[in-house]
Design brief:
GO terms for molecular function: oxidoreductase activity, acting on the CH-OH group of donors, NAD or NADP as acceptor. Keywords: NADP, Oxidoreductase. Belongs to the short-chain dehydrogenases/reductases (SDR) family. The protein has about 325 residues and is α/β, with parallel strands linked by helices. It has two domains: about 1-55; about 55-300, NAD(P)-binding Rossmann-like Domain (Rossmann fold), CATH 3.40.50. The chain has ten helices and seven strands. It has a seven-stranded parallel β-sheet, with helices on both faces. β4 (about 140-145), α6 (about 165-190) and β5 form a beta-alpha-beta unit. α3 (about 65-80) packs parallel to α4 (about 90-105), α5 (about 120-130) runs parallel beside α6 (about 165-190) and α6 packs parallel to α7. The radius of gyration is 22 Å and the shape is globular. The structure holds NADP nicotinamide-adenine-dinucleotide phosphate (NAP). The site of NADP nicotinamide-adenine-dinucleotide phosphate has 32 residues, from α3 and α8.
């Protein structure tokens, strides 16, 4: 077994080192050996994750850009031999492009199914599973990532928040996420031991700490957090894992959307800062999904180095 091989290597290396003593040469060799043991260990961990993800069917909502797009690619790169990805969003042209890029990068081992889906439309969500080709229906992992292009619109404060923005923020970010979860849970619950599968909800620092100008978005994300926590408790007698990933500042289309397409205002959000990239979050999502089934990464908060709260950011002048 790979794990055994690493342990044996480490033990052999220790005895080799004590025999050599602490000469400069030994130290250099020591460093080389340490790095080779580390590489070997990393490979072992990667192999375990690849095996755990192999054969899975994964749904990612909001896959046409940002974190969803990167997550699809990260799953494909991590388990390129045998994976099914259902990538969903409203811009199906973007999803086709994603499918093509994945095929070019990893080949035919990953089957990608682009699906046009508006998660804020309960009827579309209801017909989502029945309309999938049979080979894609046995879903193992749901990544609830979508948020509407209206979401976080503006930074208006009460009483000036428009009814349309309030509706958009809740209907995609919260109700859409809940409806998607309810559509997929019956598939999980058919499995043994009360059910198995992963629900990965993308929340936000905004759901933990509210800030002025973000009241509705913060409330919508706080609702995601409460829903995730309650769901994990409701599913306690199953093998279903409920995982929440809460990013801090990530550079995506998010800010452009927030400022109604005004790129210069969006750029100002990141000025003097180095935000996270969508790939940074994708790596955490795939890591969480790739753990042993008994390991539930229930909750994560991911900041870039300069951030410690929604409003506490260090900017270099
Ligand atoms: N970026 C950040 O700083 C940040 C921080 C914390 C949390 N987050 C969270 O991370 C998640 C992803 O955001 P992102 O930053 O990657 O944003 P993004 O690049 O704007 O992506 C949002 C995705 O959601 C899709 N979408 C919008 N409305 C939809 C609907 N009604 N039905 C289905 N798909 C829909 C969009 O595609 P279509 O337009 O094609 O439908 C797009 O693919 C969100 O849940 C967001 O709240 C982001």
């Amino acid at each position: 077994m790979n794990c055994l091989r690493v342990v044996t290597k480490t033990a052999r290396y220790r005895s080799w080192l004590s025999a050599l003593g602490s000469s400069g040469c030994a130290k250099r060799s020591h460093n080389l050996k340490v790095s080779s043991v580390r590489t070997s260990l990393r490979r072992t961990m990667a192999t375990a994750m690849v095996k755990r993800l192999e054969g899975k069917t994964i749904v990612i909502t909001g896959a046409s850009s940002g974190i969803g797009w990167s997550t699809a690619k990260e799953f494909a790169r991590t388990s390129p031999k045998n994976l099914k990805l259902i990538v969903a969003a409203r811009r199906v042209g973007q999803l086709d492009r994603l499918a093509q890029e994945i095929k070019e990068e990893v080949g035919d081992g990953v089957k990608v199914l682009p699906v046009k889906l508006d998660v804020s439309n309960p009827e579309e969500v209801k017909s989502f599973i029945p309309c999938l080709p049979a080979e894609f229906q046995d879903i193992d992992i749901l990544v609830n990532n979508a948020y509407d292009s209206g979401l976080v619109k503006g930074v208006a404060k009460s009483p000036d928040i428009t009814a349309e923005d309030i509706n958009i923020m809740f209907s995609t970010n919260t109700i859409g996420l809940i409806n998607m979860t309810q559509a997929i849970l019956p598939i999980f619950k058919k499995r043994d031991q009360g059910g198995r599968g992963d629900i990965i909800n993308i929340g936000s620092i905004a759901g933990r700490e509210a800030y002025p100008g973000g009241s509705v978005y913060c409330a919508a994300k706080a609702a995601v957090r409460s829903f995730s926590d309650a769901l994990r408790k409701e599913l306690i007698a199953t093998r279903v894992r409920v995982i929440e990933i809460d990013p801090g500042q990530v550079e995506t289309e998010f800010s452009i959307v927030r400022f109604y397409g005004d790129k210069s205002q969006a750029d100002a959000v990141y000025s003097g800062c180095e935000p996270l990239t969508p790939d940074d979050i994708a790596e955490v999502i795939v890591f969480a999904a790739g753990r042993r089934e008994n390991v539930v990464v229930a909750d994560t908060m991911i900041f870039p180095n300069h951030q410690a709260s929604p409003t506490l950011l260090h900017r270099q002048s």
